[in-house]
Design goal:
heterodimer, A: 607 residues, Rossmann fold, 10-stranded mixed sheet, B: 503 residues, 23 helices, 10 strands, 12% strand, globular, binds guanosine-5'-triphosphate, binds magnesium ion
Chain lengths: 607, 503
């Protein structure tokens, strides 16, 4: 199964990147070349997170194993997958477990499956996730597969909020159901909600080897999706056939398993996303790097050909250098803004969560006090799960929106600085600023949905600063995609029946007990959500700051280079000045051609 | 007077009190039902395999089963000499329906009636199983179709205002598929169970479709057994159902209805070399599509639908091993054994049928209670009071309540003590021997000794100053249980008094 690292349509952009890397290196800007190289890696193998989700025992883990042809995830008839497994490319098999304390521990990759089903290291520690690196061709292009524990009961399930969070951060989601029966109401509900927050959904119908009527189920399910207004495809597969085919090398059987079609589908989606997003960003990176190089060449050319302006130029460049250097200090305004705003977002998110949970607790306690909780417990629990999921998902979206605003503000501020520095250097070269003109709606394949904004912030497609967040996404740690249910599940809290039928004293006791467990559950829901908030904020803050620090450094380097070039021009003798002037003119022409091309790539990219 | 006799007497009084009122009809119906077979509902989520299991129990394909959503109306199956059926619309008189034989199945023709307008359907067919209990097929819960979901809910919630369904059902078989403890479905099942007043006495759980556990591998049934064992240990389930058994309705249905020509086709396939059949058995599609096989594709399609992949592999394996000597009866026996149906039948007979009178009496009390609330005539408060008194004083119900408490962990006792109590209360079956943990053939002397020992033991517990009040109450119930058991022994031996406890 080949899964080439490069993708259709990206050849052109890779060529452009390679040329730009050569140019920047030749002109002494190794820093810019480094950035472009990172961008190139992004195009060829940037992480592309695909979450595998669905109800219990539908064959999620078997699907991941069959995709990879290795039993890396635990599949079992009885034992359930307890924690997510995150599988990415690595030159040699390696595995780690992440403890719930955040600690990591190296494990034998062959044991990964066992850890994922046990979800703990004996009595010693609970796990949060298992991470595996495998030298599989399929993963080489950046595909990261995430096998998740099942959820039962759709959006009303205890784990639904964390699944939603994970879905909103993933690049694509495979929603798994099997051919034993058509979608239930809960499954359709979950799909509907998933479609709202997740860019690319693909449904998979598993176990088609076992069910003679799978084709009818497929048709019925398509009908359900249509009626729910979802345009999502369903691919039928059989992991069992795939395993047999891979063992025996039986090609027709492999085709029957449906996996080649699924792999092609994933590949095409990845390519589409690369084309739509990575290439655009790469073109932008090429533009902004080459613009700096071109600026330098332009300044040098001017200094060589119009020596009368040299003194004034040097003075301006001094100022520019100072400003650029100033941008790198912790005192720079943009840095303050990042710190302040993120602290602000943090406290607003905390307050928001707290308020929501308090409201919810009130609602729950009203409900409990109004009736006999022992009698109604089995209704109260799914209701509370559902309400909690709604609140948490909504809170998450709100926070993503806030982050988006901050990113935008910082971008604007920084761009302003850049523009000012650009005027000072004034080589007459119009520098494109970091994120100009790139609009989200041009990138997006679908129309904007309710949660669109938050999602884009998470993935880094912020409205005005798409470039910035390229890195935010690329380095998004899959740990954020971890799907773990709130452990204080309510279901077991008390023996439903026990109190049933007894009189008032019992009802009072039941109420007290119910209130206590609801409070415990909501508290844990809040703590878990808080932790997710902190992780996401910390990550975003660090990524944004690093990005702009790099840009500031580049700018300082550019000012420095222009200064040096001008000084060189001052000291140049007549003949070497002429020679150098014609050299810079040639260089500039070459760079300008490349710049135009990058502009064209960017221009045609958005569809 | 037994509890059942007293309930019957009270019912008669209620009938008198409501003479001439609409509720009279309902109470009379309840009275009639007291002598009829137990009514057992088959309930569960949509597609849990309810109709298939019903067919397996009845031994004939009477309930329609399908991959797509299927049962839309509550349907009662009772024993009758001649097959017949009727529809009971919500707003019109009942009308007869045609029941057409089609192959091995009986197909109900709804004509121009719409499922949504129907209250229920009634089907009568000759079936020895139905002489022992009437079965009720229900629409699945959790359906995407609103009206189906509502029907299921209404029925199980015991919507007792419906004239045609005066006293609901006496017992319930809950079908569960493999669920996770945090599964909301799981809670909903519990909730449904609660609505229908199920107790560990009148409800059993079935882990259905056991042949497809783990993707239907060769050890599917064994795995299903393991899952069922886990369920049995779940305190929430224990408070609602006596036990959970793994059952494959499909294998049971196939065993009960396997036709000679299907058997012949299977024999023909089993006679093919393994190199030919092995690739065919990889998938259902391959089995049907394989070229040049002596059994035509449409008949193979039928075989795989009737048996499922697991049943097909199992059958061909077994037939191949027996060779030409294989008989249809052997295969039927094998399918039936694997289906888990015999265990379910035994459980239904010992647990439900044996307690028929108590279950019926309890249903009757519920009906009286409901009637007095719906139509509060002058005598209503008195009737309700009597219901309450009967409930409190009936030792049979006290046993049931205690069993529920035991299973929900409300009784502070050591595990072996709890197991002992559970059995004595009939948690494993209400026959005297079963309750005492003795083999059925145990001589009377041994039975009496066991009763005496138990009685003595619980008396000590009841009188011990160290026992907590809850345990004391439990011990008192158990003492009465022992006394009741002693009273069932033949008169000649009844002279042997309960021995005083060895102090
Ligand atoms: N493999 C297997 N399939 C089964 C079993 N029982 C039922 N099925 C299949 O599951 C599907 C549904 O079976 P039904 O018996 O109609 O299920 P139901 O619970 O009555 O469904 P509704 O009435 O629609 O709620 C059919 O395609 C059956 O063949 C079983 O024990 N094993
Ligand atoms: N026949 C058949 N069985 C399958 C297929 N895929 C999975 N199974 C079986 O279904 C069972 C459950 O598969 P898993 O992959 O563990 O399912 P899961 O969705 O990961 O389960 P949880 O994570 O525990 O919710 C296993 O026993 C598998 O062997 C398939 O395509 N065909
Ligand atoms: Mg799994
Ligand atoms: Mg049905």
């Amino acid at each position: 199964m080949s899964f080439p690292g490069t993708v259709i349509g990206s050849d052109q952009i890779l060529q452009l990147l390679d040329q730009a890397i050569t140019e920047t290196n030749r002109l002494g800007r190794q820093d810019l070349a480094g950035r472009l190289t990172a961008q190139r890696d992004q195009v060829t193998s940037g992480a592309w997170h695909v979450l595998v989700a669905g109800e219990f025992k539908k064959g999620k883990s078997a699907l991941v194993n069959a995709l990879l042809g290795v039993p890396v995830c635990g599949t079992d008839a009885v034992a359930f997958t307890a924690v997510p497994t995150i599988i990415r490319y690595g030159p040699a098999p390696a595995a780690e477990v992440v403890l719930d304390s955040g600690q990591r521990r190296t494990i034998d990759p062959a044991q990964a499956a066992r850890y994922a089903t046990e979800g703990a290291i004996g009595e010693e520690a609970r796990l949060e996730s298992v991470e595996v690196a495998l030298p599989r061709e399929l993963l080489r292009g950046g595909l990261v597969l995430i096998d998740t524990p099942g959820i039962g009961g759709g959006f009303a399930a205890a784990a639904a909020a964390s699944t939603m969070r994970a879905m909103s951060l993933a690049d694509a989601v495979l929603v798994v159901s099997d051919a034993s029966q058509e979608y239930t109401a809960a499954e359709v509900e979950l799909l509907r909600r998933a479609a709202e927050i997740c860019p690319r959904l693909l449904c998979v119908l598993t176990k088609v080897d076992f069910y003679p009527e799978w084709q009818r189920i497929l048709e019925i399910n398509k009908g359900h999706l249509r009626r729910a207004g979802l345009t999502v495809d369903i691919l039928p597969v059989s992991s069992v056939l795939r395993d047999t085919a891979l063992q025996s090398g039986d090609q027709p059987l492999n085709a029957e398993s449906g996996f080649p079609a699924l792999v092609n589908r994933l590949r095409a989606q990845l390519a589409a996303q690369r084309e739509a997003v990575s290439s655009t960003r790469a073109a932008e990176a090429v533009q902004s790097s080459l613009a700096q190089v071109a600026g330098t060449l332009d300044v040098e050319h001017a200094a060589l050909t119009r020596p009368e302006e040299q003194a004034a130029t040097l003075q301006r460049l001094d100022q520019a250098r100072e400003r650029a250097t100033g941008l790198r200090t912790p005192d720079a305004r943009w840095q303050h803004v990042i710190n302040d705003r993120f602290a602000d977002v943090q406290s607003r998110a905390d307050e928001d969560l707290q308020a929501r949970m308090r409201r919810l607790e009130q609602e729950a306690s009203d409900r409990i006090k109004a009736g006999d909780p022992a009698r109604e417990w089995a209704e109260i629990v799914p209701w509370l799960y559902q309400r909690t999921n709604e609140e948490l998902t909504d809170a998450h979206t709100q926070m993503m929106k806030l982050i988006n605003d901050v990113v935008e503000e910082v971008g604007r501020l920084f761009d302003g600085e850049v523009a000012m520095i650009g005027q000072l250097t004034g080589g007459g070269y119009q520098r494109p600023t970091a994120g100009d003109g790139l609009r989200l709606d041009q990138l997006s394949i679908r129309g904007p949905g309710k949660l669109e904004l938050g999602m884009h912030a998470a993935r880094g497609w912020s409205l005005s600063s798409s470039v910035v967040t390229t890195l935010v996404v690329a380095t998004l740690h899959p740990g954020f995609l971890v799907v773990l249910p709130i452990t204080a599940a309510l279901g077991t809290v008390f023996a439903v029946k026990a109190v049933h039928g007894f009189k008032t004293a019992r009802v009072e006791a039941a109420r007290t007990e119910a209130l206590r467990s609801v409070a415990g559950y909501l508290n844990q829901a809040r703590v878990d959500a808080n932790r997710a908030v902190q992780n996401i904020l910390r990550h975003n803050r660090a990524q944004i700051r690093d990005y702009y620090l790099d840009r500031a450094t580049e700018l300082a380097m550019t000012a420095q280079a222009e200064h040096a070039a001008t000084v060189r021009a001052v000291h140049a003798d007549r003949s070497s000045a002429q020679q150098r002037a014609s050299q810079t003119a040639t260089d500039l022409a070459r760079v300008t051609t490349l710049l135009d091309e990058a502009g064209r790539v960017r221009g045609v990219r958005p569809r | 007077m037994t509890f059942a006799d007293r309930a019957r007497a009270l019912l008669a009084e209620a009938v008198t009190a409501y003479r001439g009122r609409p509720a009279e009809r309902r109470l009379l119906a309840v009275t009639r039902h007291m002598d009829e077979p137990l009514r057992v509902a088959i309930a569960g989520r949509v597609k849990a395999g309810k109709s298939t299991l019903l067919n397996a129990l009845v031994g004939q394909r009477v309930a329609a089963t399908d991959a797509g959503e299927c049962t839309r109306v509550v349907t009662w199956y009772t024993h009758g000499e001649h097959p017949s059926a009727s529809a009971h619309p919500r707003d019109a008189e009942p009308r007869p329906l045609r029941l057409e034989p089609r192959g091995t199945a009986l197909v109900l023709d709804l004509g121009d009636l719409r499922a949504d307008d129907l209250n229920e359907l009634r089907v009568e067919i000759p079936s020895s199983w139905l002489t022992r209990m009437t079965l009720v097929d229900t629409p699945g819960m959790g359906s995407l179709s609103e009206s189906v979901a509502r029907q299921a809910q209404e029925f199980l919630a015991g919507d007792t205002d419906r004239a045609a369904d005066p006293d609901g059902v006496d017992a319930v078989v809950y079908l569960l598929r493999q669920l996770h403890a945090t599964d909301v479905d799981f809670l909903e099942v519990l909730s449904d169970a609660q609505f229908s007043h199920s107790t560990p006495v009148n409800a059993v759980g079935v882990l259905s479709r056991s042949d497809e556990v783990g993707g239907g591998g060769p050890d599917a049934i064994e795995q299903a057994q393991r899952i069922a064992t886990r369920y049995r240990d779940d305190p929430r389930l224990r408070s609602l159902v006596q036990t959970v058994l793994p059952v494959s309705g499909l294998l049971g249905e196939a065993g009960a209805t396997l036709r000679p020509e299907e058997f012949a086709d299977l024999m023909r396939l089993a006679g093919l070399p393994a190199e030919t059949t092995a690739p065919m058995l990889l998938s259902a599609d391959r089995f049907v599509a394989a070229p040049s096989v002596p059994v035509p594709a449409d008949r193979r399609h039928r075989l795989v639908r009737v048996l499922g992949m697991y049943g097909l592999r199992l059958s061909l394996d077994a037939l191949r091993q027996r060779g030409a000597a294989a008989r249809r009866g052997d295969l039927v026996a094998l399918l039936t054994r694997r289906s888990g149906l015999p265990e379910l039948r035994r459980l239904l007979l010992t647990q439900f049928a044996e307690r028929r009178d108590v279950l019926k009496a309890d249903s009757a009390l519920r009906a009286i209670d409901a009637v007095t609330r719906a139509d509060p005539i002058d005598a209503a408060p008195w009737l309700r009071q009597q219901v309450e008194r009967l409930r409190v004083s009936a030792h049979e119900l006290a046993e049931i309540r205690l069993l529920t408490e035991l299973r929900t962990g409300l009784v502070p006792a050591a595990p072996d003590q709890l197991a002992h109590m559970d059995r004595l209360l009939g948690g494993e079956g209400s026959a005297v021997g079963t309750r005492l943990g003795l083999p059925p053939e145990a001589p009377d002397a041994e039975v009496r000794a066991a009763i005496a020992a138990s009685h003595g033991y619980w008396r000590r517990v009841a009188h011990s100053p160290l026992s907590e009040p809850v345990l004391v109450r439990a011990a008192e119930v158990l003492m009465r249980t022992c006394e009741g058991l002693a009273a069932t022994l033949p008169p000649a031996r009844a002279t042997v008094r309960v021995a005083p406890p060895p102090e």
